[in-house]
Amino acid sequence: xxxxxxxxxxxxxxxxxxxxxxxxxxxxxxxxxxxxxxxxxxxxxxxxxxxxxxxxxxxxxxxxxxxxxxxxxxxxxxxxxxxxxxxxxxxxxxxxxxxxxxxxxxxxxxxxxxxxxxxxxxxxxxxxxxxxxxxxxx
Length: 138
Known about the structure:
Layout: H1 3-22, H2 25-29, E1 32-39, E2 48-49, H3 51-65, E3 70-80, E4 84-94, H4 96-101, E5 107-116, E6 119-128
Parallel strand pairs: 1-6
Antiparallel strand pairs: 1-2, 3-4, 4-5, 5-6
């Protein structure tokens, strides 16, 4: 892994997260492959495939987030090879009330990237939250 590749990918992910936080659809779509596959927290359970299906997932999230929710990278690790890379991150994602009720809860993000036309693009995106409503064992 070169430091330059890691820095490029880190900057790409930070730009994406800022675009998500600000509701900037063009910024969210930038640097994503046309054949992206995303597995997200809400349905569809089989995920979405392709940039148009990916685009369609964001408006409901932007509406929810406009009510004061945060979307902030807390930690980010990148591993890059010559033409493929992956990254994983933890994000504070929730309303002030949700984060106050469960301050340790973090959105887990995993990204797969590849080089396309001499630049890094996201080809796989996976978001998840830990299950926090487990039944009591008593």
